[in-house]
Amino acid sequence: MGKYTVTGCVISCLFYGVNVNAQQDPTRPLEWHSQGSSLTLSRSSLPQLQSVICEQQCRAILSGQTVAVGSYITGYRVSRINASSVILTRNKKQWQLSLFSTDIKQ
Question: Is 50 exposed, middle or buried (0-12, 13-18, 19+ CB in 10 A)?
Answer without folding.
Answer: middle
